[in-house]
Design goal:
The protein is α/β, with parallel strands linked by helices and 465 residues long. It has 2 domains: 160 residues, Rossmann fold (3-Layer(aba) Sandwich); 298 residues, L-fucose Isomerase, Chain A, domain 3, CATH 3.20.14. Helix content is 38%, strand content 23%. The strands form 4 sheets. Strands 1, 2, 3, 4, 5 and 6 form a 6-stranded parallel sheet that branches. Strands 12-13-18-17-16-19 form a 6-stranded antiparallel beta barrel. Helix 4 packs parallel to helix 5, helix 6 packs antiparallel against helix 14 and helix 6 packs across helix 16.
Length: 465
């Protein structure tokens, strides 16, 4: 499974102790001399810190890596000592979120944010929104979750953003970065790296075919075993084992290249390779590779389309499900139903950790080759789905919720499989796609709310249909 699916958000708890210079009363504090004594304050913080740790250990999401809590102390001279802030540096590289609590913690919280430029969260109300507003007005990240449920939701979103920032695409090319089939693809990969952290490695597509023909004995055995497993698991197989094996060997070659170049996403053009007869000479298409990679948690897209690859990555990291993708067009204007049309369903579209969905294996070509997974989407009528696509600048994300209304092309050859999806306004969706392009990524479940929150966190405008 893709290691990005198992990423944790490093949460560094910071407990603030405000120790006053003496037992005085005034507009900022009241009490008897005994309770206001600095030594009494210190004793009270011991108990409060213990409860703070217990609450974290009992309530924090498993998506978080709970780092060692740190106590920092300041006094009523209202200066946070530099030496106290430096206590946070031991875990700094592992820290994704500072969780601040304790006595009058606003100033220490903003001091931490300014010094280390990492997100700050404080659970509760009043001072938490004070800190969040200050930080946001200065281009820093501040969050004010009301309780642990909201904190854990925030951690889930931060995990997705962290996974995106750690995504490294293997881009197989046969010519220009802009493929002839999807000219609306994201073309500025340097900007993608600078803004969203998404890295890439470009290699000639022909190199993967060379790897496929030169698989080691061990990798060849893997391909044989996986081929038998796929055939045994299928309800029907409409092509020869040898031709299924050809497509599986290509997948194994891609996985080998991804490991060598430390990549966790894959994209390859279709038209350019098809026109040069490379696919026909090798008797394979890339459909099965995309399906198998996604079922392992690796975003993988057709036709060199990086927009849909990025959309797929966000949806998969968020849902922990294999994504589907395809061309979109209206099939029933009156009922507001569109088709999402490509031969790349996953067996784990209901959950990466769940059982395989029922499927058949069918040849893509009249010549009997090009293995594809076929799933009958009409099994899922009424189930909610989320559709998404980045625009060519990767600054906007088109998002639509829908529900499965049927399927098509299950028993036909060619790129024929489709999921039929009822959306709020199919015409509006098609018109908005003029700013985004023609492939949509799809996952089961409604994640539109989370995508809008992620958009705010990542500086991406979300356009909802």
């Amino acid at each position: 499974m893709n290691k990005l699916m198992d990423l944790k958000v490093g949460v560094k708890p910071v407990f603030v102790q405000l120790i006053h210079s003496g037992p005085y009363e005034g507009p900022c504090r009241v009490g008897d001399r005994e309770s206001l004594d600095p030594e009494a304050e210190k004793a009270g913080y011991e108990e409060a810190f213990r409860r703070f740790r217990e609450e974290l250990e009992g309530n924090l999401s498993p998506e978080a890596e709970l780092l060692e809590p740190v106590r920092i102390t300041w006094t009523d001279n209202w200066v946070v000592p530099e030496g106290e802030l430096r206590k946070l540096e031991a875990d700094l590289e592992r820290t994704d979120l500072f969780l601040v609590s304790g006595g009058l913690a606003q100033y220490p919280a903003i001091a931490i944010a300014h010094k280390y430029k990492k997100p700050i969260a404080m659970v509760g109300a009043v001072v938490t929104v004070d800190v969040a507003a200050y930080l946001r007005s200065r281009g820093l990240e501040g969050y004010a979750p009301l309780d642990f449920d909201e904190l854990n939701h925030l951690i889930s979103l931060l995990r997705v953003r962290k996974a995106i920032r750690n995504t490294r695409m293997l881009v197989a090319m046969e010519g220009d970065i802009i493929p002839v089939g999807v000219v609306s693809t994201i073309w500025n990969l340097d900007d993608l790296k600078d803004r969203l952290g998404v890295d890439h490695v470009c290699i000639p597509a022909r190199e993967i075919f060379k790897r496929m023909e030169g698989l080691s004995q061990e990798d060849s055995k893997k391909a044989e075993e996986l081929t038998d497993k796929l055939i045994e698991g299928a309800e029907k197989v409409h092509m020869s084992r040898e031709d299924v094996l050809r497509s599986v060997r290509f997948y194994v070659a891609v996985r080998e290249a991804m490991e060598e170049f430390e990549c966790n996403a894959f994209v390859i053009p279709c038209f350019e390779i098809c026109a040069r007869r490379i696919a026909e000479e090798n008797r394979l298409t890339f459909c099965l590779t995309h399906s198998l990679l996604k079922d392992e948690g690796y975003p993988s897209a057709c036709e060199g389309d990086i927009n849909v690859l990025m959309s797929m990555a966000v949806l998969m990291y968020l849902s922990r499900k294999s994504a589907y993708m395809g061309n979109s067009y209206i099939v029933d204007r009156g009922r507001s139903v569109i088709a999402v049309h490509h031969d790349v369903p996953g067996l784990r579209m209901k959950g990466l950790d769940g059982p395989d969905l029922p499927y058949e294996i069918r040849n893509f070509t009249v010549g009997g080759w090009g293995a594809t997974i076929r799933y009958d989407f009409s099994r899922d009528i009424g189930e909610p789905v989320t559709l998404a696509r980045f625009d060519p600048t990767a600054t906007r994300l088109l998002v639509a919720r829908g529900e499965i209304a049927g399927g098509g092309g299950f028993d036909r050859i060619g790129c024929s499989l489709s999921a039929h999806v009822k959306v709020r306004d199919a015409v509006d969706l098609m018109h908005k796609e003029a700013d985004f392009g023609h492939h949509l990524a799809m996952v089961y479940g409604d994640y539109t709310s989370e995508l809008k929150e992620l958009g705010r966190m990542m500086g991406i405008e979300v356009v909802e249909v």
